[in-house]
Fold this protein.
Amino acid sequence: MRTSMTIRIAAFVLLLPLSALAQVGNVADILARSKNYTVLVPGELATIWNYGSELFAATATVRLRPSGQESTVSARVVEANGARITFLVPQVPVGFAQLIWETEGNSSEWSRVEIVPSDLALLRTGNTGPLRAQNISPSGKLATHGLASPAQPGDSVVLWATGLGSAPPDSVKVLLGGVAQAILFAGPAPGQPGVEQINFRVSSPVTEGCYVPLTVQTPARTSDSFLSITANGQPCRHPLLLSDSSLSRLDAGDLLPLSLLKFSTALDAASADKTFREETIGFYSYRVAADWLAELYFISPLAAGSSCTAIPVPVIGIGISLVLVPGQSPIFTGTPRFLGEVRPLNAPATSVTDPPATILSADAPLSRPGVPLVQGGSWTWTPATSDTTGVSSFDFRLPPPVTLSGGSPVRLRRDRDQQIVWNAVDVPVGFAAKLAIYDRRGGRKVIECNISAMQGSVTLPAPLMAGLQPGQGASMTLEVTGTITATPHSGSGMATAISWRSSDTRPMDVQ
């Protein structure tokens, strides 16, 4: 079934190189703040963001010059106002090309872009979502998809995207909660040049939740996001225990109050007999949008696996990056409120300041490292001055701090695969682990692995370690991060989330 949709181009925070004075890319990628810029697909919508504001006019033109050609090809401009030009990429050969635009008689610099046959990206807000989607019930009733209006088994869901290009429609696959879904349609969206539409039917049974992982696969690219799914189509049960009215407000683009308690505990074992723990604690109050909450609670389908990569040596050069905020409401607003006290019940209060309070333990043997001073349980936040949040009391439970197995230094063989192990008992689902190896203590990162923290181990392939040299003082850091929901005491304060970070750093003996 085909439906229609009005595409509304919104602005977001972008990092722009000064030399180009603009950012060019697929509309869906730029709206989502994806890093996949400068990749364009013939026949698809693309956008130019200009550094500065109100520089474009309705008479703007865009031209492309394919690599190796002298002549240029004009693009059809769909919209030109404010600080953007939205255009349809003309039919030009695959490969690199130069792009130039003109407005009010002024020409831009030439920008290098890459033309590819297909590079599908979903229209969404933020890096992961929410998606721009629509539910269609078996009876034909239409509803905008959201937290308060999830899809249910039997519904058809409509997604919008750009960049399908020359990929065959039957090559599109959709996974929801890891389960393949029946594709009903994949192709150009009716009446929307440069926009694709993907329709699929929600299978039964399917995982329920506010952030059920959704993956759209094409031969050229995989896009990950999420949908809200419930068995009866009623509002989903949010991890923050938000009310139905709050979910509706988020769906409408409103900002909701949220307090965030940030904990960090870092173990640093310089040697087997010299280990210390550093902890920080801070309390923050925000007004957040739906995509900000998704960043906190969405668990990527990739979180169950692991991957290790070598970090290339950076190219030395001179460049300047600028931050552009072209008029869109920020992801969160309000000044973080640092001054006050946060404390466990029946325990001394910890003053919360800017920067967050830091607690440092004394040196101890690695076999008996400093016990974490920050613990879960019942806590109370009391602002030092008049504050709209007021006093807030809540309960939460923290997992044990992450600890690498073995001694210090970590002994590593370069000629064979090596398994790195850590404690994974009581690690919540969805917590992410990152293992980083540096060529010297505090030096350049040369290897990085991303793993589910619950996995408890990762294997370093021998080829990745070939660049490590004995005697250079290499070091290893394992970091585990995740979000925990605090349970508020009856009638106490706003929703509170716990941002938790734990790390273990040790020198390495490379052999």
Observations:
- The chain has three helices and 38 strands.
- Residues 177 and 213 are 5 Å apart (CA to CA).
- The first helix runs from residue 27 to 31.
- Confidence is low (pLDDT under 50) at residues 1-20, 315-340, 345-354.
